[in-house]
Amino acid sequence: MNAKVFLILTLAILSIPAVVAAQSATPGTLPMPLDANPSFDVATIKPSDTSAPHGTFIRNNGRHVIAYNMAVGELITYAYGLHAKQIVDASPVLLAAHFDIDGVPDTEGRPNLQQSRGMFRKLLASRFRLAFHYESRELPVYAIQIARSGPHLNLTPRKLSDSTSFSYTCQAVLTVRNSSMSDVAKGMQDVFLDRPVVDQTGLHDRYDFDLKWTPDDSQSYCPVGTTNSRTDPNAPPGLYTAIQEQLGLKIVSTKAPVQVMVIDNIESPSGN
């Protein structure tokens, strides 16, 4: 998901938007049953007002699910948990078109991340006529690998059935709990890095860890002024150094086979 997308959800597992995706806990709205498979009962879609203040988000507002100023490409990456570079053969003009969406689910309660993504998948199919197929293509990626020092990771004491979490603050403190390395790769892809991220560690356990670093200009997922200054002598190192020093892992730029979404059809949204 595009790093500018600030979605107000508690991340059960990441991404997210690109968008990293989040949902606000609206007072008085209980969560949907976990086995619910909601759709939009009604949804209004209109082009975004380009003169309005910038910002992009998906959030709950009482019974309504709101997508504000979302590009079509961002809607797809959010709905399908993809990186933008995994979407191919689509009109760049349509992917860049921004829309505001205001819809009401056909099920009572507040949708969780997976339920929200499913709602937008159905909306893209019904209103944008999205049709696609998957292929494997070799793309530039970041690979998470074991560093020469070996991994410095703590096995989680949690059960496999317990919840996972991948959350961060704008001081660039990443908190990971009960997560596999493939979960971590997916989260890094959704939030922090500008390419798909693949797990090449060969590690199959689940871990708990905190990772602290100072973002560079390419990791612009937080508002200006909210991160540590790179001129602060006490600031943590950059991501690539921090992950080696703190976790015994490394991020390598390479090429690897990645599943991509090949767009067969997509159209401007049908009328409300």
Fill in the keyword field for this structure.
single chain, 272 residues, alpha+beta, four-stranded antiparallel beta sheet, 5 helices, 12 strands, 32% strand, globular, disordered N terminus
**Spans with pLDDT under 50 lasting ≥5 residues?**
1-28
Structural class: alpha+beta
Radius of gyration computed on alpha carbons: 19 Å
Note the main sheet.
4 strands, antiparallel
Proportion of strand residues? 25-35%
SS element count, helices: 5
The H/E string reads: EEEHEHEHEEEEHEEHE
Q: Give the oligomeric state.
A: single chain
**Average pLDDT taken over every residue:** 84
| Spatial arrangement of strands, main beta sheet | 1-5-3-2
Distance between the termini: 26 Å
The backbone outline, from C-alpha atoms, is globular
Number of strands: 12
Molecular structure report:
The protein has 272 residues and is an alpha+beta fold. The protein has a domain of 121 residues. Helices cover 18% and strands 32% of the residues. Strands 1-5-3-2 form a four-stranded antiparallel sheet. Helix 1 packs across helix 3. The radius of gyration is 19 Å and the shape is globular. The chain starts with 39 loop residues before the first strand and ends in a 7-residue tail after the last strand. The N terminus is likely disordered.
Quick structural gist:
The protein is built from five helices and twelve strands.
Helices, strands, pairings?
Blueprint: E1 40-47, E2 57-61, E3 64-71, H1 72-80, E4 87-88, H2 92-96, E5 98-105, H3 113-127, E6 131-146, E7 154-155, E8 165-169, E9 173-179, H4 181-191, E10 197-199, E11 207-212, H5 239-247, E12 249-265
Parallel strand pairs: 4-12, 6-10
Antiparallel strand pairs: 1-5, 2-3, 3-5, 6-12, 7-11, 8-9, 9-11
Helix pairs in contact: 1-3
